[in-house]
Amino acid sequence: MSTKFFTNRDNNTLLAKFEGVFHNVGNLHCFDALVGYFRASGYFKIRPFLEKIPKIRILVGINVDSLVHKYHSKSMEYRGKPEDVLTEFFKSVQEDIQNAEYNKDIEHGVLQFIDDIIHEKIEIRAHPTKKIHAKIYIFRPENFNMYTHAEVISGSSNLTEPGLGTGNYFNYEFNVALRDYEDVKFATDEFELLWKESISILPVDAKNIQKNTHLEGHYSPFELYIKFLIEYFGENIDYNPDTVGDLPEKFKKLSYQIDAVNEGYQKIIQHNGFFLADVVGLGKTLVAAMIAKRFIFENGKGTRILIVYPPALEKTWLRHFKELKIDSYTQYISNGSLHKKIEKKVKSGSLKTEHALKQLIELSQKFSQSETNYSMDSEKEGLETEIEKPSVILAESFQ
User: Fold this and answer.
1) Residues 273-297, buried b or exposed e (16+ Cβ, 10 A)?
2) Can you spell out the DSSP letters for 184-197?
3) What is the C-alpha to C-alpha distance for residues 266 and 234, in angstroms, rounded to an integer?
4) What DSSP string describes 294-305?
5) How many angstroms from the chain centroid is the CA of residue 44?
6) What pLDDT is attached to residue 394?
7) Packing angle between helix 104-118 and helix 203-211, nearest 10 degrees?
8) CA distance between the termini of the chain
């Protein structure tokens, strides 16, 4: 039995439907698209079919909710200012370009999209107030009437690679193709109404898309080198202790310590812990405290920190954490029969280890002596029964 509905099973994708319409319906003059999500990489996939279509219009939705929230937070009413709409649209397109898989075809497609706007091959607008979720594609001849052939496709598919059914991953889609005059006219009238309410993306605006992304292409070797460092070191280069408050005045901010904080925190994120080791007197305790402060800054004020230390270093740990104003997030426990101490404190309620997200363990020379009563296995067992996947710093001094 014939049906007007279709899914993308067995490669029956939206892109295949587009290809069928463009190749088999004669005298097509207009292609209108109303979509909630638009990707330049998706436009690239249908661009070959649009070569001989004189009039192409794409109406896209933007993140209206974020704009409404922005104005409401200032006790203001969002009225759909053109500058806000353009900013949100460009932000979306630029993020799409930056996050797209890098290959020559995609780059060519994005540049083609920008060029088509500049040379008015396509018209593109963004609606300022409506959160568009509809997906409508209209194919019409120039003199559209009840006797001419036209078609409208509507359903779940956006003008993106997953929506079109291309690439390595695509969505499950459910759409309907309608060819009756009344259906196509209704869709066209609704599109025209929304089109009149929308904000135009002008050719001069499109030039900024390329200018503010890597597609501009005019980069010096030094700029490429800086970009390489940014990509390689990631967030390490972005963090500075100033972002979570200055160090106390009596501390001198040393670059090697800041580097250690950045690298150490990154290792915690990647591996749940690391060894912090250097000779005596170079500030391991302070570095560990600075890492703990960043950990609290990044993970919220609900973060709990557990410090395990030999009794001889108790004052140093307590002093540094108090000076950095993070002692209220911290619980302290000395070494020895650690698992017994933890069990006792948990039972008494003084140590809430289910909230401890991090341990800082000071390994002094005592820990490496054979006669010490310190047992890493029993300590580890005692900790892991109470703390799920803790992050650990092991700090060691070399003589």
Assistant:
1) bbebeeeeeebbbbbbbbbbbbbbb
2) HHHHHHHHHHHHHH
3) 9
4) HHHHHH-TT-EE
5) 23
6) 60
7) 150
8) 85
Closest CA to 217 of 108, 131, 326, 89: 108
Which residues 6+ apart lie within 8 Å of 159 measured at CB?
33, 35, 37, 38, 39, 42, 43, 46, 58, 135
Percent of residues in the chain assigned helix, strand, coil, to nearest 5:
50, 20, 30
The length of the chain in residues reads 399
Domains of the chain, each with CATH number or no CATH: 5-218 (3.30.870.10), 234-398 (3.40.50.10810)
Report residue 313 as tokens: 């270093």
**What was the pLDDT predicted at 42?**
78
Q: Report the 10 Å Cβ neighbour count for 233.
A: 13
Regions in the chain scoring below 50 on pLDDT: 243-245, 353-359, 361-388, 398-399
What span, in angstroms and rounded, lies between the C-alpha atoms of 118 and 290?
A: 51
> What is residue 30's predicted lDDT score, i.e. its pLDDT?
95
Q: Which two tokens stand for residue 176?
A: 């309907």
Provide the CB-side half-sphere exposure for 161 (13 A, CA).
13
Query: Which stretches within the chain are classed as H helix?
Result: 14-24, 40-46, 64-72, 82-99, 104-118, 161-164, 181-197, 203-211, 221-233, 255-271, 284-299, 314-323, 338-348, 365-368, 376-384
Interatomic CA distance for residues 164 and 150, integer angstroms: 21
Question: 67 and 184 in contact (C-beta within 8 Å)?
Answer: no
Tokens 């740990």 belong to residue: 317
Closest CA to 291 of 368, 218, 360: 360
pLDDT at 343: 67
Q: Is 133 exposed, middle or buried (0-12, 13-18, 19+ CB in 10 A)?
A: exposed
Taking a C-beta distance cutoff of 8 angstroms, is the pair 281, 273 a contact? no
pLDDT on residue 370: 42
DSSP lists the bridge partners of residue 35 as: 60
Name 154's bridge partners. 136, 176
Q: Which of 305, 376, 391 is nearest to 336 (CA)?
A: 376
- Supply the pLDDT for residue 357: 39
> How do 174-178 and 151-155 pair as beta strands?
antiparallel
